[in-house]
Amino acid sequence: MLDPFGKRAEGLIKEEFGDIITFLERIPSALSIDEPVAMIQLLLESENPPQELIEVDNLEELRDLFKFYALLGAASISPYGLEAEIVKRAALRLYSERIKASKKLNETMLPVTPVEKDELPHNDLNILERRMDRHLSPEEKEKLEIKYRIPLKSFLNLWTGSLKEVYIRNGHAYLRWETTLKMWEKAFERRFERAINLLYDYRDELPEFYHRLREKLEEIAEEYFKERGEMFKGTASPLRFDLFPPCVKEALKGVPAGMRNYAITVLLTSFLSYARICPNPPKKDVRIKDCINDLKIIEEEILPVIIEAGNRCKPPLFEDQPHEIKNIWYHLGFGLTDSPTMEDSGNSTWYFPPNCDKIQTNAPQLCKPDRYCRGIKNPLSYYLKRLYLEGKKKEGETGE
Ligand code: SF4
């Protein structure tokens, strides 16, 4: 299998299991946790992925797909944690090596078609492939060959460079092997991210297998990233207001009467508390007392922000609804009270931030998506994604 998101993989999953959730539910009965773990370890430890991972015969194809989706399911429990990062890196390496070995990119999710002989004008090819240059070695010539065409729309979706670097004709971009492979890598990363964001919603329904696999991956990832520090682990740290999603920034500005309770009590309270205390919860029914030891963080860093946002509402929320403070504590999981102690944590549910579709239905004025909202299902994932990207940026700067 060249691409776990390609048409062939999609067809196999649909044919054998119907949908992805059923597929994920069946994996634990066919696979032990040690198998995907061993695969990840092999990929991380070897300079080049071993041949046994590159060449998979047809009989083993489904099992091979099980391993990838087992890892994907485990990664989705913590979509921007180190676990997801390590799975993405290892999978990218594995499938990219398989594609290189097969010399085929038209069987992947990338909508490319091999270029036919005589499809392009001779003169253009002479220039593009430098056919008259006698100093080129056969390898250099091969690198210059125009191999694939891709519809312009799909191309523009993935391309970030200048259009001057690309040969475009009849609504298609024409690409060399290396460029096509890079585009596939980008498409793979995007699809991976979209998949774990979609599965994030189902993480509580996933069999225990995935939670145990995630723990194993966490151990491996911590070891692997020890050198790089904990830049994008997504653990509790001071709030980064600049990385908040647009809907939360809107709520912070204060909102009109009809939207106050939703924006402040439902969205802000849940978002700020999870973002500050437990940005990457391994399960949905986590309690605040599972994450912190005293209420200082809530009283000094979270409540003041909620109250200020409430005061910015028109009319100010807590002036005409002072009892709403009790409701804030209720949404934080302390029951209906205005003087809680840590022991009260768990008296009610610690509300998780509502998903984007809920916000769009209940308070559409808050949702003003920006480019980071693409593929995001929940404002907390947006925040984790931005933290993750910041971590990567810093990692790059340190590297340089
Ligand atoms: S798409 Fe989601 S995260 Fe982005 S602004 Fe809308 S509700 Fe917020």
Automatic annotation (TrEMBL):
Q: Which GO terms describe its molecular function?
A: 4 iron, 4 sulfur cluster binding; DNA-directed RNA polymerase activity; metal ion binding
CC cofactor note: Binds 1 [4Fe-4S] cluster.
Its required cofactor(s), as named, are: [4Fe-4S] cluster
* One of the record's GO cellular component terms: primosome complex
Q: Which GO terms describe its biological process?
A: DNA replication, synthesis of primer
Protein residues bound to [4Fe-4S] cluster: 247, 356, 367, 373
Any matching Pfam family:
DNA_primase_lrg_N
- Record's keyword terms, sorted: 4Fe-4S, DNA replication, Iron, Iron-sulfur, Metal-binding, Primosome
Q: Keyword Iron-sulfur, does the record have it?
A: yes
Domain DNA primase large subunit C-terminal residue range list: 239-373
Q: Which NCBIfam families match?
A: PRK03968.1
What the record says about family reads:
Belongs to the eukaryotic-type primase large subunit family.
Give the quaternary structure: Heterodimer of a small subunit (PriS) and a large subunit (PriL).
What does the UniProt record say this protein does? Regulatory subunit of DNA primase, an RNA polymerase that catalyzes the synthesis of short RNA molecules used as primers for DNA polymerase during DNA replication. Stabilizes and modulates the activity of the small subunit, increasing the rate of DNA synthesis, and conferring RNA synthesis capability. The DNA polymerase activity may enable DNA primase to also catalyze primer extension after primer synthesis. May also play a role in DNA repair.
Q: What is this protein called?
A: DNA primase large subunit PriL
Source species: Thermococcus peptonophilus
